[in-house]
Amino acid sequence: MFDPQWLPTIMIFLPLLGSLLLFLAPNRWRDELAGFVAVLTLGLGLMIWYTGGSGLLGLNWIPALGITYSVELSGVSLALALVTAFMSFIAVLYAARRIPNPGTMLALILAMETGLLGIFAARDLILFYVFFEDALLPSLLMLAIYGKAHRMRALVKFAAYTLFGSLLMLVSIIGVRYLGGSPTFALVDLKQNLVTGPAQTWLYLGFLTAMAVKLPLWPLHAWLPDFHEQNHDSGVPDVMGTLYKVGGYGLFTFAIPLFPDASLELRPILMGLAAFTALYSAWVAFGQKDWKRLLAYAGLSHMGFVALGVFSLNETAVIGAMYLLAFQNLYTGALFLSVGMVQERIGSLDTRVGGLMTGAGALGGMTMALWFASIAVPGMAGFIGEFSVLLGAYQVSPWVAFAAGLTTIAAAAYALTAFQTTFWQARPLGGIAVRDLVHTEWLILGLPLVIAIFFGVYSAPALNLMQPAVKSVLAALGGS
Amino acid sequence: MLPLLYLLPLLPLIGFALLMVFPRLFPGKSGGWLATGLIGAAFVVAVLRYLGQGDTPAQETLWTWLPNMALNANLSVGFYLDQLSALMALIITGIGFLIHLYSISYMGHDARFTRFFAFLNFFVAMMLILVLADSYPLMFVGWEGVGTASYLLIGFWFSGRGSESSDKDLRAAGEQEGVNNSNAARKAFIMNRIGDLGFMLGMFLLYKLYGTLSIPELATRVEGVNVATAGVELACLFLLVGAIGKSGQLPLTTWLPDAMAGPTPVSALIHAATMVTAGVYLITRSHFLYELAPNASLWVAWVGGLTALYGALAALNQHDIKKILAFSTVSQLGYMFLAVGVGAYSAGVFHLLSHAFFKALLFLAAGAVIHALHNEQDVRRMGGMRKFMPFTHIVSAVGVLAISGIPIWSGFFSKDAILAAAFETQPLLYLIGLIVALLTAFYMGRWYFLVWRGQYRGAEATGVAHPHEADTITKIPLGILAAGATLIGFLNIPTFLGGGHAFDSYLGRAIPQEAHEILPSTEWSLTIFAVLAGVVGLGWAYLQHRAKKLDNGPLGQFSSSALYLDNVYDGLVAAPSRGIAGALDTVDRGTDGLIGSIASNAAAPGGLFTLWQSGFVRAYAVSMLLGTAAIIGYWALKMVGSGA
Amino acid sequence: MMIAFILLGALTLVGGVITIAARNAVHAALGLVGTLISVAGLFATLNASFLAATQVIVYAGAIMVLFLFVIMLLNANQPISGRDPIPFVRELAGLGGVVLAGAFTILAVSYKDPRPVAEATLALGGGSASVIGETLLTRFLLPFEAVSILLLVAIVGAVALVQRPVPQPDDVPDSEAELLTPPVGSAISRGGSQPVLQHQSLQHRNDEGEVRA
Amino acid sequence: MVPTSYYIALSGILFALGMIGVLTRRTAIMVFLSVELMLNAANIALVAFARSWGDLTGQTAVFIVMTLAAAEVAIGLAIIVAIFRKRETTNVDDLAAMKG
Amino acid sequence: MLQAPDVALLPLLPILLVLAGALLSTLLGFWVSRRTLTVINIVTVILSGAGMIFLWNQGLSSFAGGLQADNAAILLGLTILVGTLMTLLVSLDTAWRARVSFPEFDAMLMYAVTGCLLIVFSGDLIVMLIGLEIMSLSGYVLATLQDSRRAEESGLKYFLLGAAGSAILIYGIAFVYGATGSLNYAAIAAKVGSVSNLTPENTGILVGGSLLLLAGFAFKIALVPFHQWTPDVYSGAPTTVSLFLSTVVKVAAFAGMLRVFGGALADAPGWAGVLQILTAATLIIGNTAALLQLNFKRMMAYSAVAHTGFLAMCLLGTQALGGAALGYYLLVYTLMTAAALAVVAALQRTETGFEINDMRGLYYRHPGYAIALSVCLASLAGLPPFAGFFGKYLAFQAAFQNGYVWLSVLAAVTSVAALVYYLRPAMLMFMPDRTPAKEYTRGERFPTTLTIGLGVAGVTVLGILPNVWYGWVANPAIWQLLAGR
């Protein structure tokens, strides 16, 4: 009989296979093929969910080095994988509609999906690292092929920041195994052989650098605005880029179990940094005149919350952080796409064009609803995340939670200001008449919104996935 | 079998969903009727639940929701019905129904008629969630939900009503209106968010103190768990910040007058009768905490008193027919805060109830006038409207009498109770309350005389020579509300007037009653002072009217600029934060540019490097030789050093 | 013995100094010859008689003649005047040399013979041709053979460099082949001063004088 | 018997001299001559060590090194001649087109 | 009495086969066309490889330990042969354009390989030295062979500095001999193994000698500050030659270092400390300098320097791990560098290669080569799933495990610079471009494509399934016997 343990593996590599097939497929079938693969991947994910998460599949990959192929999709990782599969599908949907001759873009989306799913499924540090870097390549190519005039700068910055962090992480990974004396790099083995003492702190810092770049966390965030600003106007690469912000997940799955003492020790500083990131970037977002940059900073601000939750090591906060991480992908991604739609209609990403909603009510309405999700209006998924993060963080450090809480005000300020100057107010004389949503665009914005609302109201399915996983991870800390 | 509580928010939510997603299914005014009908149905549910209510509160849990709350069980979505929430549900659905009805006529010509009702339904649903919530987080859902609805409705005319016009001037005015409306909506949302942060912090602290956020559980746990008073005080202050934000109290008050940018029914429903009273509701709901926190309660009372004074002063010289009412609302809300601050929860809620009636009435009447005058809102261009709109005039007069605290009308009873409670605990606040009562009577008198009496002054400016009386659909809510504003006071006739405190004793089953220890003689004198204040105020207004000086009320610019509070905020908060945002953006790009220019330009190290990699083979040999010499020399030195 | 060492050592160094300091290349080469012969003497004092002979015959004789020949051929005996393009090269060289010499001296002083020198000397058998030959053909057989490859490389390489063979055409399509043929007479450009910069503006022309479309 | 150290010191100084020559001489041939000095220094050291150990390996190695030197000279002079043909210079500083 | 020399030709077989190719090229060149000779050489190289595989696990040695055909030698020898094969294949297409298409070119190439194999199979310092000299002299000739000013300049620079480097190396050999009384790796290792065997006072001479050896080798593998010839030679020589020099010759030099420092002098004090400083300097200078280059070929030259730094980290590891890491990394390095330079050789218009900016839009003109080149660059940058990542990983691990944590961190940081300079051309290739093509349009020929395919396939397969090669090199026993028995 078929072993369900293999499902994650199939789910991971199916998009890559699809991506390679796209090069062979005739031009006119590419959209359908890509969509089919994306749906199939999502279906597989749902199947894993339906069967209650997969078990751990552990194979020896490079026995001589103690590197294993360990994958598992359950708990938090399954939730994130599902969101990834879903948003990849949405991205495929929009890319097929928006980008002329989209074959390459679709292939890159699928290739990146493989990397992202791999990141979430990996239960071996080296495997994690490999997928972590694998996702980088398609992302770079999207920027290179479809980016804007100053993309080289953005590209170099993005790659340099990412690699700077991840190479330090690589050193830490090596250290984790050798200083701890684990036989393999598999998480289960590493957990049995923890590094102790000051070495743990140093290794944690190495790990942290990588994750802080990918979170991103101030001051390692500078790549993010440029990355989004220079990416293709459609916002499709931005969706994938948003999905790639996996720092919070990495910290949660690997850093906390492997560096329990260090994460406790550094908790105050890191929480402060995370709160600062949230507030700082929200404030910077307030000053942005370009939608992509604004969304970049908004996303950064969310990531500050995610980081705050993870760093606080409080159960509620960590669950909230994971919840936020998973669902912010939905609305942030959809917002990028809505910005792409705006750009398609008026050829501008400026936040001060004014009056779009007069012509495009549905587009404006959906965008507004997504913004409400983004600024954590209750009843949307973002609220559960942000509220839990703040609630949990407050139990640990009230002042930091207060500082982070200020972000909610700033978020309202930047979101509503930009929304108002773009969609509300009067359309200036001579402005291009704006077409409303058509065809699949309804789905592209509607589906994420519906899911964001559903999980904001009825969170049990997602919480049932995440809560036990978080509890077991935090149990390693000795019940703090 | 009583209908389940979740029907209350669900019915309007269904309306919202239908009207949002399938607006095409509801041509003409059918959407409005659907929405109104659903609210009516909700009102029926509320009445049924009210009638079927026992002494023990009902709690109905739907499903789990927030992670890890309340002793590691997930926090649930659940509704809680006690006397307080039943009353609130009645107010919301009842007055909501009337205002929906009114809106069918008022918004009849608007292009986005159906959308308006969707938003209204959404608001009512959120408000019901707010009052029925069994936990603070769920209440927060409603709390922010009504904020969102308020945002949507204030910004309903986001592009201005004339911005599509071909006429240049009209278009310019429309564009300006669009910007103003949008700004007002945003301001309301952001200021509410400030309050919301306070509310959230309050929740966090409560959770830290008691480990739960479920209201009934908290209420019981407060008695059992011993925590430092300072903690409770702080939590109550946090909650107060939340209440301040929502109820437009000082210092977060400036959004409320601006919120009048929304359509008039919105002002009546949200910014007078229901949403803004949520702060009062929150504090009343949290009475078990405030009882443990005397200092925080005192803060509440003072905030209320000062806001009442502020609102009254600012209302003195407004020229917008709705802004006068808006500042009046601020002021009246201050009264309610004062009441709950001094522990007179029942009096506060009672004033909430009566205020809901008369203020909704006044707003709707004002709306009728605005409608009749084709969107003219400046009271200086009105006057003599009683001739054109007799029915509306009568109901307006009822409203003015009610708010001025003239006996038999509801305002008299509710205000009197508050002033009595204030006198008992904080004489200074009583004095303020009394002054505010006088001012209230004056500015409402001014409003009345300017709009309804004297000569019609606006024929030229508005282009409406003969304003028409409101239609029937408009008159029905006005009539019902006027009746309510007149009669509702009799629900709670105080003992010294021979009443039985019916309202107090009903509410007393849910919230504690202040003990009345005032002598009847004192009560009498207090009542006389209060009535006197109302009469003097109205008389003062009449005298001014006779002297034709009402156009410009007292205090001049100071009052019409709302005590310059907006300017202060703009200077202290808004402008600096915009500046800081710009500066931070520059810094963010700058640090980045710095790193970038080092990396990309690399002129200095690059030049150095070219100098080194000079292309001369002997230069390369120099590196080699010096390298070797350094290595060997290092070793030799080490050997000498180690004494070999 | 010591006197011989001092004498020969001094001669070696003097020769070395002449080699590196003489302005005329021929003088320098002669200084090197002096050094080489002195080194041969040193070999002799170290019981390496065969090597001493080889040093004189092969090194000082054959190799140095080759050197002188080339110096004369290339007319390289005149010193190069003008500013040295490398700043401080003499100072740096002096510094490096002094450090190296000092360091080596320190190392040398630290050296202790593993066994008594007199006894060890006997084991060398005088370093005669026969003992060296025996070592070469037994323990050093592989190096001995491998060195022949080295010499072969030297011969083939030197010939190939001095008389460059003609490149054999590829089976390139004709049109390309035409373009690729090096133009006649452009192989040598005189002067030798920075031809690259002069031609940089002409993209189709590089410093190898190739002309490409 | 002269101590081995003396020979080693002598060879070290000779080696350093060779190095200095490599740096200061500006003609390719002279640079190469200086390299010969360095090779000779190595030879002295080898022979001296061979005596010290009483082992013929060192002396035989010198023999090999001499051959190496000869081969090197052949190639080196060929390169120098080849360059001279094209540029008519033996100044190594003239060959500095590639840099940076 | 005359003892019979220990002559066993079987272990010499691979070397002899290559030498036969070289001799055939030298002699048959008068009658046979160069392309035929190249094909013959390819055959001899493959035969030599087969010979090595035949010798696998036999652990043969001959000439009294002067020649070691142990597994380490075979693994490194195979790596060298792979590089040679790729060079030969590329030269089939580009030698004419580089104007080096004559039999002597092939002959010198094969001589150089013979020298390389001698180093790899060497059992004592003299054999190693001779191999090194054969390799170097052939290398000097190869670099100069093209009739152009650039090639001659690079040849002279290479030669003059190389001669000085060799002199330093020989001086080092003399000192090591002085300290241990032997030139044989095993004997030296035995002497060094326990310092009691060594005349205690002579540790100074031993360390001095090993440091001189280190300096000499540092020149051959291009460690800072002995690296400066590298960019000039690699960018001046024909690209095919650069390909050869930067892969085969470097592999051989590393093999020599592994033999000497990982085997004979493994236990000697002093050198590791210096090597780590040199490695650190190499990492910094190499990567920074590559960042500043505008010409792709020259950038690849600096990248070779930078990679020396990463490779040298392996030498700092313990014998078992470091040797295995080096064994893996060298093959991967050969594959990716050779394939990348093969693309340059195929598409360049002149032997200067092309400017990085000229690569814009290459993907749309030569999709296959562009993808291949970007795969190689990604691998060079150390991005998974390509083998370069595991190379880097192993290097980090080797250094880390032996306590050089700071070096690993430094290497990680400098890798970022590496990424940047590899990324720029890789991404430019995918950026659409409207300017006319700057590269040679007919460069795509079968042998080159085969080479590139070999490189890309190798890099990918070894990246996804590193065990294919690492499984062979991982056995610690291989590397603990580097000095021979």
TrEMBL record, chain D:
Catalytic function, reaction form: a quinone + NADH + 5 H(+)(in) = a quinol + NAD(+) + 4 H(+)(out)
Transmembrane segments: 6-23, 30-50, 62-84
Record protein name field: NADH-quinone oxidoreductase subunit K
Matches recorded under Gene3D superfamilies: 1.10.287.3510
Domain of life: Bacteria
Pfam families: Oxidored_q2
Source species: Deinococcus aerolatus
Subunit structure: NDH-1 is composed of 15 different subunits. Subunits NuoA, H, J, K, L, M, N constitute the membrane sector of the complex.
Lineage: Bacteria, Thermotogati, Deinococcota, Deinococci, Deinococcales
InterPro entries the UniProt entry points to: NADH_UbQ_OxRdtase_chain4L/K, NUOK/Mnh_C1-like
Function recorded in the entry: NDH-1 shuttles electrons from NADH, via FMN and iron-sulfur (Fe-S) centers, to quinones in the respiratory chain. The immediate electron acceptor for the enzyme in this species is believed to be a menaquinone. Couples the redox reaction to proton translocation (for every two electrons transferred, four hydrogen ions are translocated across the cytoplasmic membrane), and thus conserves the redox energy in a proton gradient.
Family classification: Belongs to the complex I subunit 4L family.
HAMAP family: NDH1_NuoK (MF_01456)
Record keywords: Cell membrane, Membrane, NAD, Quinone, Translocase, Transmembrane, Transmembrane helix, Transport
EC annotation from Swiss-Prot or TrEMBL: 7.1.1.-
Coiled-coil portions: none
Membrane association type: Multi-pass membrane protein
Subcellular compartments: Cell membrane; Membrane
Cited PANTHER family: NADH DEHYDROGENASE SUBUNIT 4L-RELATED (PTHR11434:SF21), NADH-UBIQUINONE OXIDOREDUCTASE SUBUNIT ND4L (PTHR11434)
